[in-house]
């Protein structure tokens, strides 16, 4: 395939389908051939934008010009469509979450091996600048020995209407936002061993699907991750909050506004107690400015198109896939553990 643009197509022309079609039109090395959606109105919209719309999924998969298919449909039909695409000789990108459970994922991986075609998942938030920024702060040792990381996404609009609020289609926040935040955690931690997870879900606006969740994941060495998604939060907490024995870091939003505070004199003499509510405290007294130093957060720049560039390089034999099957299996196992912990109200150990 080297030297020639790879023909691409998108199945499912909703919000994310439109996103993928735009990426295929803007990234060098791939050429958008067309799209298909089961909703005729979405196909008409694509045509109005100058994009060819196929009359059926079968017609799209039969087109020999297409070498890469992105599946951007509701979650419950990912497996069926991905396997059909692989069987038709196409490489396949699947939107997240890749599947409804580990059993479905294993069928998809098995098909990729059987047909000898690339199968990967659009874990695009590995390229989020806020994630890359906090990862660099931690990996550079800015905070010393890190013992807790908090990752949150808060909104106030509940679950988006449509299939995302229906359990049979794989709705809910664990499978919507959780799959991103948990993947970021697993990516940052690499081979570090998970010990356990304790999770809870909320059903404030939806009895059928979780509209939020909190998961506390413990790693070897005592490191804790708190991952939280909320959709009924009218005051947002910081996107990232990390604690180490040498300092703390906060990133408040996706724009990477925040700060790092480092300590350079842990012991202070003659700390004066402060009034704290109805009592006095030295423990919670603010630090003397001479013992800490504040630094601005330096944003790590990124390009979301890097995902597609990697896929194109893989198809041209120039790179290895950055989103691998073992990574997907590990993430899916963790998601199942989150659901199990919330359902049983108990710690799940790995």
Task: Write the element-wise H/E pattern from the N-terminal end onward.
Answer: EHEHHEHEHEHEHEEEEEEEEEHHE
Name the CATH homologous superfamily of the largest domain. Dihydrodipicolinate Reductase, domain 2
- Helix percent band: 25-40%
Multimer state: single chain
Shape: elongated
Ends apart, CA distance between termini: 42 Å
**Share in β-strands:** 15-25%
According to CATH, what is the class of the largest domain? Alpha Beta
Tell me the number of strands. Answer: 16
The poorly predicted ranges are none
- Largest sheet report: 9 strands, mixed
The CATH architecture assignment of the largest domain turns out to be 2-Layer Sandwich
Radius of gyration: 23 Å
Could you say which structural class the secondary elements and strand pairing correspond to?
A: alpha/beta
Query: What's the CATH topology label of the largest domain?
Result: Dihydrodipicolinate Reductase, domain 2
Mean pLDDT: 95
- Tell me the number of helical segments per DSSP (H or I, 4 or more residues long): 9
The largest sheet has its strands arranged as: 15-12-11-10-6-9-8-7-16
Task: Give the topology.
Layout: E1 6-11, H1 15-26, E2 30-36, H2 40-48, H3 57-62, E3 68-71, H4 78-87, E4 91-94, H5 102-115, E5 119-121, H6 129-139, E6 146-154, H7 173-189, E7 194-202, E8 212-219, E9 224-230, E10 240-244, E11 247-251, E12 258-263, E13 274-276, E14 279-281, E15 292-296, H8 306-315, H9 325-344, E16 348-349
Parallel strand pairs: 1-2, 1-3, 3-4, 4-5, 6-9
Antiparallel strand pairs: 6-10, 7-8, 7-16, 8-9, 10-11, 11-12, 12-15, 13-14
Helix pairs in contact: 4-5, 5-9, 7-9
């Amino acid at each position: 395939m080297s030297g020639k643009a790879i023909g691409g197509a998108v199945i499912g022309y909703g919000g994310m389908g439109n996103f993928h079609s735009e990426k295929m039109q803007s990234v060098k090395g791939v050429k958008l051939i067309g799209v298909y959606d089961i909703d005729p109105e979405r196909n008409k919209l694509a045509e109005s934008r100058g994009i060819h719309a196929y009359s059926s999924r079968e017609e799209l998969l039969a087109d020999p010009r297409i070498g890469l298919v992105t599946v951007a449909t509701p979650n419950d039909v990912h497996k069926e469509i991905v396997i059909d695409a692989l069987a038709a000789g196409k490489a396949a990108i699947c939107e997240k979450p890749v599947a409804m459970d580990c059993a479905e994922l294993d069928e998809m991986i098995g098909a990729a091996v059987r047909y000898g075609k690339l199968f990967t998942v659009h874990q695009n938030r590995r390229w989020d600048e806020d994630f890359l920024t906090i990862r660099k702060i931690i990996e550079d040792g800015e905070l010393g020995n890190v013992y807790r990381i908090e990752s949150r996404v808060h909104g106030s609009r509940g679950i988006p209407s449509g299939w995302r609020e229906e359990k049979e289609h794989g709705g809910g926040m664990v499978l919507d936002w959780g799959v991103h935040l948990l993947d970021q955690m697993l990516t940052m931690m690499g081979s570090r061993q998970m010990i356990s997870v304790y999770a809870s879900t909320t059903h404030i606006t939806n009895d059928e699907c979780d509209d939020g969740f909190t998961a506390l994941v413990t790693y070897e060495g005592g490191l804790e991750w708190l991952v939280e998604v909320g959709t009924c939060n009218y005051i947002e907490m910081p996107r990232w909050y990390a604690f180490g024995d040498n300092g703390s870091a906060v990133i408040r939003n996706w724009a990477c506004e925040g700060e790092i505070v480092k300590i350079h004199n842990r012991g202070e003499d003659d700390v004066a107690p402060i009034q704290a509510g109805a009592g006095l405290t030295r423990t919670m007294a603010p630090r003397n400015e001479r013992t800490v130093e504040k630094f601005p957060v330096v944003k790590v720049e990124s390009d979301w198109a890097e995902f597609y560039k990697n896929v194109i390089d893989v198809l041209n034999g120039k790179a290895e896939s950055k989103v691998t099957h073992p990574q997907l299996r590990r993430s899916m196992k963790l998601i199942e553990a989150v659901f199990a912990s919330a359902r049983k109200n108990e710690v799940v150990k790995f």
